[in-house]
Design goal:
Layout: H1 8-24, H2 35-54, H3 59-85, H4 91-116
Helix pairs in contact: 1-2, 1-4, 2-3, 3-4
């Protein structure tokens, strides 16, 4: 079992999820059940799956949940791109968010690799 609260990737994913919630709070009401909901769910899914995997009894199970977290981050990336193209996320917000997400993806990949050794 791993302590997820000590994992930098989990901490960064939490920060990103909070940023996403703040940004989607500015989206039009018409997006409440569409892109707003999708982005919020995918953003929360990343740290949630890291935490759930860390609580599992084997590195293999943890690795599987890290894979799910990675999938959610790619889903979030797609939703960022759509929101940016629709003008819901401006370029000055978009670039740092994408860079943070890429960093989280790299850390998740590194953690997955370390579990397989």
């Amino acid at each position: 079992m791993h302590n997820f609260r000590n994992l930098q990737v989990w901490k960064d994913a939490i920060e990103l999820a909070v940023e996403i919630y703040k940004i989607t709070g500015t989206f039009p009401v018409s997006e409440k059940y569409n892109l707003t909901s999708q982005l919020n769910r995918s953003a929360v899914s990343v740290p949630s799956n890291i935490a759930e995997g860390a609580g599992r009894n084997t590195n293999g199970a943890f690795n599987q949940f890290l894979g799910i977290a990675t999938g959610s981050s790619y889903e979030m990336e797609t939703q960022f791109i759509v929101a940016n193209k629709l003008g819901l996320i401006q370029e000055e917000q978009f670039t740092p968010l994408i860079e943070k997400m890429y960093s989280i993806q790299r850390m998740t990949h590194s953690l997955k690799s370390s579990l397989l050794k």
